[in-house]
What does this fold into?
Amino acid sequence: MSKKIQLIIGSTRQHRLSPSIANWIETQVAKNDDFELEVLDLKDINLPFFNEPTSPSMGAGTSDAAQSWAAKISSADAVIILSPEYNAGYPAPLKNAIDYLKQEWRNRPVTIVTYGFGGGLSSAAQLKQVFTRLGSAIVESGVAIDIGAGILNETGGISNPETSLLQYAAPLATALDEITAHVKVEALVVA
Ligand SMILES: Cc1cc2nc3c(=O)[nH]c(=O)nc-3n(C[C@H](O)[C@H](O)[C@H](O)COP(=O)(O)O)c2cc1C
It folds into this structure.
């Protein structure tokens, strides 16, 4: 049976780069029959700024937004976080989406894909720290896309992701293999 992976698009601004990288990730994942991918675009999900009356450590909040976000994240086997680097960190809407939940992140395999000038390594480091605190099963191989390495076209977009992101296909495939291993271990633990 295929594993359900969610791809969370972590940037929400207008004219963002993330959808083109997300499309490329979708194409790569589609090459592997083991996976079924669901894209969760935080721009569309549009979670309100976190304002629940209780801490998520007591369970997901009571608002419709909190309940449906918790149900959505609980419905998958693993998560890929796609995040740019903003000021040596990751975007606020992504932090907001993370902070809504606690138990739902626990033991969940999480792969981190960042992009930025130099690959968004500071953003990746922060995300690792946060998901470690949440007890997620962070997949060791992440992907760090250097958008300063001739990838962007003259309008700041990615013209041909299949070609310009080619060097990242192997690291992504490795990360997906690791997700499979994590999910198998999880299944054994549950059984
Ligand atoms: C508010 C802001 C801060 C940024 N800070 C960094 C940074 O610290 N390091 C970096 O490599 N790129 C930085 N960038 C460049 C982004 O990585 C680049 O614009 C990327 O396309 C942003 O992702 P998005 O288009 O999906 O929003 C920053 C961009 C923005 C908008």
In short: The chain has a mean pLDDT of 94.
